[in-house]
């Protein structure tokens, strides 16, 4: 495939304009993915401090790791949305946009004069996406929502621990990410429908709804049995053996999702007799007799090293993996082979390493990223090019703190 074709394939949203009022994680992750897919994303930030994550340590130079992780390939425009002139600038930009994204509490954008009905009056084709913690009709609707709150209310924290231990949040900010990812589904579906109708619509996604939608088989365990799933740590609530097993110097993941893999694993352990043992011969029997089977597995595996078991499990065609740290995961051969890390150059900080998006189009990944912008760095350029402001008008707006500096 030629470079031109690859670049075109990697930018399916080229020509789509996104106006992003969101901050922290759930909205910025979604707008970053849209930027990866070729959309032009303009991030609206407050004049004073910008996105709150700009202040979260640790830093490289004076730029936060958190902001870097979620804001590549976007323009930054700083506006005072508490002023009528700042709101008017935002409205004019929205009138030229295909997508507006926000993640304030319900009602905030309406009070600012930037709600869906107001912006749709100027731009009927606008796809307007609201990510909230709980949505408009929830009894929790007025409460602040953060990732850990959504995780707690979704039930996922209750099973994320070893038996008898205190529940703990997932290491990934999955509440934020779930809302973000489902919002992308909604936005892209609304864009597709707009091609037919010419009309935009209001896409609404709640973080709590999204996490509950991701319960998968856990919800069905409850619906089928009437009992909530119990925590099983790294094991599986209904498949045995499946999870983390101790070795002489660490742990190894083993996943016997099918009977064939169970048979392979029993042979790998030099315990072929377990295959015909009525306590372990079928899924249901192994689940019922988990407390008898797992000690047998532990006693055999703890005699040899992690490296030994990784080689042996692979030789017997048993699904397995080491448990890598974040650093080890990022430096593994798979990541290099897939080109999942790229380097971008920031004008003040220098070289930054970023994780790329995972989607391929005809073999091509996302278009090359640009470094996260300084607060308000693109304000002047955007207002000049998109709205026709003169230099004198920009200086006046900056002097009155309606817009930030830069550009």
UniProtKB/TrEMBL annotation:
The keyword Transferase applies. Pfam families: CoA_transf_3 (PF02515). PANTHER family: SUCCINATE--HYDROXYMETHYLGLUTARATE COA-TRANSFERASE. Its EC number is 2.8.3.-. This is CoA transferase. It is an enzyme of class 2 (transferase). The keyword Chaperone does not apply. One of its GO terms (molecular function) is transferase activity. InterPro entries: CoA-transferase_III_domain, CoA-Trfase_fam_III, CoA-Trfase_III_dom3_sf, CoA-Trfase_III_dom_1_sf. Keywords: Transferase.
């Amino acid at each position: 495939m030629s470079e031109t074709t690859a670049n075109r394939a990697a930018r399916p949203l080229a020509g789509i304009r996104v106006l992003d009022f969101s901050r922290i994680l759930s909205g910025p992750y979604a707008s970053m993915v849209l930027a990866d897919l070729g959309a032009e994303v303009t991030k609206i930030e407050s004049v004073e401090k910008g996105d709150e994550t700009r202040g979260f340590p640790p830093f490289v130079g004076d730029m936060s790791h958190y902001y870097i992780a979620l804001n590549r390939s976007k323009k930054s425009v700083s506006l005072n949305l508490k002023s009528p002139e700042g709101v008017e600038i935002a409205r004019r930009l929205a009138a030229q946009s295909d997508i507006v994204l926000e993640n304030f509490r319900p009602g905030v954008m309406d009070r600012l004069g930037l709600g869906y009905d107001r912006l749709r009056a100027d731009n009927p084709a606008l796809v307007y996406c609201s990510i909230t913690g709980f949505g408009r009709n929830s009894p929790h609707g007025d409460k602040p929502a953060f990732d850990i709150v959504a995780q707690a209310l979704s039930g996922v924290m209750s099973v994320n621990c070893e038996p008898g231990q205190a529940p703990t949040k997932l290491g990934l900010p999955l509440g934020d990410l779930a809302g973000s990812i489902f919002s992308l589904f909604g936005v892209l579906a609304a864009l597709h429908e707009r091609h037919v109708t010419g009309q935009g619509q209001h896409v609404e996604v709640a973080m709590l709804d999204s996490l509950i939608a991701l319960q998968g088989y856990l919800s069905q365990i409850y619906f089928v049995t009437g009992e909530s799933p119990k925590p099983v740590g790294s094991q599986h609530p209904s498949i045995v053996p499946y999870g983390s097993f101790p070795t002489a110097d660490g742990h190894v993941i083993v996943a016997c999702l099918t009977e064939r893999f169970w048979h392979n694993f029993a042979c790998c352990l030099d315990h072929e007799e377990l295959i015909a043992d009525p306590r372990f011969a079928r899924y249901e029997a192994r689940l019922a007799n988990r407390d008898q089977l797992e000690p047998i597995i532990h006693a055999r595996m703890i005699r040899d090293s992690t490296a030994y078991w990784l080689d042996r499990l692979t030789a017997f065609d048993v699904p397995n993996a080491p448990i890598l740290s974040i650093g080890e995961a990022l430096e593994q051969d798979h990541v290099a082979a897939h080109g999942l890390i790229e380097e971008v150059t920031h004008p003040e900080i220098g070289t930054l390493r970023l994780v790329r998006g995972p989607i391929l189009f005809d073999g091509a990944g996302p278009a090359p990223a640009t470094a996260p912008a300084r607060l308000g760095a693109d304000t002047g350029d955007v207002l000049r090019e998109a709205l026709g402001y003169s230099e004198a008008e920009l200086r006046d707006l900056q002097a009155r703190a309606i817009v930030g500096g830069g550009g």
